[in-house]
Design a protein that fits this description.
Largest interface: A-B, 48 and 47 residues
Strand content of chain B: under 5%
CATH architecture of chain A: Up-down Bundle
Radius of gyration of chain B: 25 Å
Largest sheet of chain B: 2 strands, antiparallel
Radius of gyration of chain A: 18 Å
Helix content of chain A: 55-70%
Strand content of chain A: under 5%
Shape of chain A: globular
Structural class of chain A: mainly alpha
Helix content of chain B: over 70%
Distance between the termini of chain A: 34 Å
Number of strands of chain B: 2
Strand order of the largest sheet of chain B: 1-2
Number of strands of chain A: 0
Number of helices of chain A: 10
Oligomer: heterodimer
Chain lengths: ~250, ~350
Amino acid sequence: MSDAIKQATLEYATRLGDDSVVLGHRISEWVSYGPFLEEDIAYGNVALDYIGRARMYYTYAAELADDGRTEDDFAYMRSDRDYRNLLLMEMPRGDFAYSQVRQLFADVYATVMLPELLKSKDETLAAIAAKAIKETKYHLRRSRDWVLRLGDGTEESHKRTQKAVDQLWGYTHELFDMDETEQLLADNGIGVDVSKLRDAWHAMVSSILTEATITVPEDSWAVRGGRTGYHTENLGHMLTEMQIVHRSHPGCQW
Amino acid sequence: MNESTQAFREHPEFASLKIVEAITMTISQEENFMRKIENEEKIEPKDWMPEGYRKNLIRQMSQHAHSEVIGMQPEGNWITRAPSLRRKAVLLSKVQDEAGHGLYLYSATETLGISRAELIEALQTGEAKYASIFNYPTLTWGDVGAIGWLVDGAAICNQVSLQRTSYGPYSRGMIRICKEESFHQRQGYEALLALAKGSPEQKQMAQDSLDRFYWPALMMFGPHDSESAHSAKSMEWKIKRETNDDLRQKFIDQTVPQIEVLGLEHPDKEIKWNEERGHYDSGEIDWEEFYNVINGNGHCNRQRVEHHIDAHEEGTWVRDAITAYNVKKNAKKAQNAA
């Protein structure tokens, strides 16, 4: 592996790890707050899958960095300006509709992106994708079912779902942005060219939203910045909470 | 009806004959029930059972289910602050198990002819209880370890014995639950071991958690047998298989060497091996604190129930949406079929 590729792969694994840990954390905030017990279990399950992904991506990043850092150094010792997750993942928990709509957007993204990552020449990334694809199948079935029920449920659930879609839509555009790092990896058959996935994502999301009697928003606004560390105000608070114990005891084992 | 039958029925002895008949039937049902209990056969949902047995089981099983569900809160309090990704995953998985246990136990209780909605309402009105231990706050990461080790450890002592309980669905539920609980206890102990072998601050955190949770864990076994309101009948019916004091002694005995391995100080200064009894002698529990917390004066009594009510109420519109959605889908199906 050339140095440039190695550096880019390290950065890429870190980005995907950041996406996973941030979304996993957000989902985990639901435990004991679900609308009924079965949902507490389901949320716990999905959160676990994402924390599991984060661990695999970070462990690989740590291996490539080869500087003594561990998965926990990536998760706990980097500040919000160093985090490279997509903004969509860091948006707050919100109400049940908001969380399920975000989940649908993320699950459809994973559904179109992971099969591409599975083709990666990088065996580790391909192996992570293989495991994640199986999980995502269940995640999508759940978030799709929920959006259908909420969208086409009562007047109130419909209103909340439409509002969530409108509030989150502007954060979905950067899901398909490429930069030099990702382009280099895509050109070398290691990373995914996400710019080519927008149409598939849009078609699948639109069809689910339409079936849920939800209006698909016009592309009138777009906020970007997650991959460059230019975050919303939400991430700082989230990381403060997540990192407090770890950082209060530097160098300790848990 | 002919005249002689009529005359017989009007005879005063006929009424008492009917009573005798009824009594004989009841006796045979009750005898049959007690015979099963004595022979260690399980009582199944459709079997005849005394009303008191049913009520006693509903009380105990629903209390157990509620404890699993309310127990998600003090531990859930640390999911977002778990100090490593591995610990975060383990804790998430543990809390998720607790929710699963709550589900099994609600379902098992429903076999006694009561609905989950009724059970939840009883929890929210305070009519039903949950384990008082969850009215203690989790203040540090160490408390997550202490709960796994001590609280789940105490629960296991009780639950292992309940695998032999006389009611079939409860017994089978316990067998499943025990397998997962022993993983919970190990993860708690392991988390505390990491602290105890860590920095001085971490060790202090472990000691502090042990000091705060040890006595409340002992209280989980309930009052002394002589003071326990439900014990005698529960033992007779084999709902309970071992007494509060016997189970508590088991827990006290098993915990001493575990504290030694951790290298922490035992919170009970009177703990001492008694060769003659083959058990540890221990200091007296502060029963005033026990009743005080049960009666609503713990740090979190109100918070735990309000949290449950709030989540439940906030979920109303979600549950309504499912109902509305299903009604629409069914109507559409019916229309297509017509």
